[in-house]
Amino acid sequence: MIQNPKRYTITAALPYTNGPIHIGHLAGVYVPADIYSRYLRLQGKDVAFICGSDEHGVAISMKAKKEGVTPQEVIDKYDGIIRKSFADFGISFDNYSRTSAKIHHDTAQEFFRTLYDNGDFIEEVTEQLYDAKADQFLADRFVVGTCPKCDNPEAYGDQCEKCGSSLNATDLINPKSTITGETPILKSTKHWFLPLDRYDAFLREWILEGHKNDWKTNVYGQVKSWIDAGLEPRAVTRDLDWGIDVPVEGAEGKKLYVWFDAPIGYISSTKEWAAREGKDWEPYWKDQDTKLVHFIGKDNIVFHCIIFPAMLKAEGSYILPDNVPANEFLNLEGNKLSTSKNWAVWLHEYLEEFPEKQDVLRYALTSNAPETKDNDFTWKDFQARNNNELVAIFGNFINRVVVLTNKYYDGVVPTPNELSEVDENTLAELKAYPAVISSSVERYRFREALGELMNVARLGNKYLADEEPWKVMKDNPERVKTQMYVALQIAAALSVLAEPFLPFTAAKLSGILKLGDLKEHFEGFSKFLKENHPGATDVILDKVLNWNDISKHSDLLPAGHKIGEAELLFAKIEDEEIQKQIDKLEATKTANLAESKQPEPQKDLIQFEDFAKMDIRIGTILEAEKMPKANKLLVLKVDTGIDVRTIVSGIAESFSPEEIIGKRVSVLANLAPRALRGVESQGMILMTTNAEGKLVFVNPDADAPNGSTVN
Fold first, then answer.
1. In the prediction, which pLDDT does 597 show?
2. How far is CA 467 from the centre of its chain?
């Protein structure tokens, strides 16, 4: 762990431009990275917060094929959506680039060429899966088959998403091409490999020994498992038609493997930022006094903790990450998030449906962050955290303080009198919070840090509840001046301490308290927003206080300073708004069931004479009532056209008697009678099930009279 670094390079995993950003991405990577970066800036640190769109690889090609467009159209579409979503959500990147940019192609090719010239690659001719019908080699995601480790029949050629095993496409049992559905053949092709096994000793010393005590247990454990299982050479090139050309002779038609080029995107994005800002990029990647931190999800641990460090070590001039605080996965309403199945809360849709509630989502995701284990996002929990915590605790305290200050003193901070022991203890406790929150943030425990921030608001609420200035005002108005002065100091502290977690709220609170101007400290991000997305909301704080002032001073808001009028920081979210989101997910679930529903296999062949024996008639249900002491059975009177008969049907859990009276139905009329709970049933109603598994009547779509036969 680097002590007192001169600068920080903070990277957030490059999102694939094959779809928008959803809450899983936010909880796993972008919100914690933004909290950390904002916190460091408030400390006055030199920070480069770097990201960009990952625009190469099979995922892009697959999306293009599916949508019938070019890969360029795919990346342009989703880069625009992602870029705007991040800006509107207030993710404070210093630079957000694209791996399709020339500076990235040049940087990645130069990096490859350096390792190639140093003899760090192994060149091998190997047999790869080839789709003869499509006339192309199959990259990993263009192959599905049975996982050799867990028998999952839908494993991809690079990974089984069921058991998490890393695979090669040739490991799959019964592989199939996702392009044509054909069984691929093996065909020889030449590729270059990074021999990870050469870096075994380095990785053991650097991670297993050097970071045993400061890396998260989930990250350390996964890395140890990989290393202990034995590292093998990994291809850095692929036979693809979309990506960065391999810059050596004999590599025509081959591209850099996306896992090789994507992390180099951090470097090229830093170069782009430095050139724009008139800075030298190299210290941010090559100076030992720089702290490099990668924020990623758990599916990227191996790439950022083993493969990319091996690449950097091979190149020789780059620093290694000080920490990789990867999060686990966030599930949604009990099910795994899925882009392909639309089982997600999409950021751009959230911003439209919950305007000016960016911080509510930030708060909910941070409070429930999957820091060391998978967690679940539910809309009810989202609502509860807003209504019971943000509104009832944080918002309530600020509203009371501002309303009372305007009521008693026309918005002017009163001059305090002698502080009581309670006042002094409260201010002393307030001064301790920056260090407490800092300790959690610097250990990447953002959920814990947010809890401590809310404890500051709780401190304020408790102080007001105990002191009751609205009662004291009648008999001792001079005492109230001191009480309100103390409460206002807590409010001012919250405007600073909340900024990394709730930047829009902090900006609004800063405006209410009229804390001045701090924009010069954030000119880089302001400039970035204006240049890259003119329509984005600028969330730069409008205040002069910084993080360390809170622990040093008791006069954050000096006497005589005039604050503004009260505004609600948070609004209650009603049940109707939440139900709308739940219904939206239920509609997605229904659509997925319909899409995935497989018809039952055909039964054994019969002769026409077998079918001709069945007498199926169109009828109408005349009466219906529940069978006593039988939850599943209804007793029906049915007009079959040839008679009115009793039929007992097991549909009571799907239909009420009232709703099926008058229903047209198909009846197997010559089924042998059968006694059910003492009632003789003289036939059977024909039913099927829909995509949700619910029973549906099989009935005519035309006005056929009762007694009509089905032939």
1. 60
2. 43
Q: pLDDT tens across 97-144, in order?
A: 999 999 999 999 999 999 999 999 999 998 888 888 877 788 777 789
How far apart CA 28 and CA 365 sit, in angstroms, is 9
pLDDT of residue 262: 96
Q: How many CA atoms lie within 13 A of 626 on its CB side?
A: 11
DSSP assigned state of 245: B
How many angstroms separate the most distant Cα atoms in the chain? 104
Q: Which residues pair with 123 in a beta bridge?
A: 192
Provide, rounded to the nearest whole percent, the portion of the chain with pLDDT above 70.
Answer: 94
Angle between the 308-315 and 258-277 helix axes, to the nearest 10 degrees? 60
Distance (Å, rounded) from C-alpha 61 to C-alpha 74?
A: 9
627: left (phi over 0), alpha (psi -120 to 50) or beta: beta
- For the entire predicted model, the pTM comes to 0.82
Asked if residues 145 and 172 have their Cβ atoms less than 8 Å apart, the reply is yes
pLDDT at position 240: 84
pLDDT at 524: 43
* pLDDT above 90 for 81: yes
Cα–Cα distance, 10 to 75 (Å, whole number): 24
In single-letter form, the type of residue at position 251 comes to: A
Rounded to an integer, what distance in angstroms lies between the CA atom of residue 376 and that of residue 694?
A: 28
The residue whose two tokens read 């999409």 is 346
Output the pLDDT for position 200.
96
What tokens does 95 get?
A: 């630079």
Q: Which of 68-77, 145-154, 442-451, 647-656 ranks highest by mean pLDDT?
A: 442-451
Give all strands (DSSP E) within 308-367, no chain letters.
330-332, 335-336
Which ranges of 124-257 would DSSP assign to H, the alpha helix?
200-203, 217-229
Tokens of 643: 């008679």
386 closest CA partner among 421, 415, 362: 362
- Nearest alpha-carbon partner for 319 in 341, 299, 294, 289: 289
Q: Read off the tokens for 584.
A: 């939206």
Neighbouring CB atoms inside 10 A of 251's CB total: 18
What burial letters (b/e) apply to 533-551, b meaning 16+ CB within 10 Å? beebeebbbbbebbbeebe
How many CA atoms are closer than 13 Å to the CA of 404, on its beta-carbon side?
25
Strand-by-strand arrangement of the 155-156 sheet? 155-156, 143-146, 173-177
DSSP conformational letter for 22: B
Q: Is 448 left (phi over 0), alpha (psi -120 to 50) or beta?
A: alpha
Tokens 């069945």 belong to residue = 614
| pLDDT of 495 above 70 | yes
Q: What is the pLDDT of residues 141-171, one digit of tens each?
A: 778 999 998 988 888 877 787 786 777 788 8
The rounded radius of gyration (Å) of the Cα atoms in the chain is: 32
**92 contacts 30 by C-beta, under 8 angstroms:** no
Q: What is the pLDDT of residues 277-332, one digit of tens each?
A: 999 999 999 999 999 999 999 999 999 999 999 999 999 999 999 999 999 999 99
The answer to whether 431 and 551 have CB atoms below 8 angstroms apart is yes
Closest Cα partner for 12 from 29, 37, 32?
A: 29
Contacts of 674 (CB under 8 A, 6+ apart): 680, 681
Q: Which amino acid is at 415?
A: T
Cα dist. 590→224, 292, 469 in Å?
Answer: 41, 45, 55
Question: With 70 as the cut, is the pLDDT of residue 595 above it?
Answer: no
pLDDT at 65: 82
What does the pLDDT look like over 542-555, one tens digit per residue? 446 789 889 988 88
Q: How many CB atoms lie within 10 A of CB 358?
A: 22
Please check whether residue 571 is in contact with residue 67, taking contact to mean a CB–CB distance below 8 angstroms: no
Between strands 95-98 and 47-53, the pairing is parallel
Exposed/middle/buried for residue 282 (C-beta within 10 Å: 0-12, 13-18, 19+): middle
Rounded to whole angstroms, how far apart are CA atoms 287 and 436?
A: 30
Between CA 244 and CA 71 the distance in angstroms is 13
Helices (H) and strands (E) in the chain, counts: 25, 25
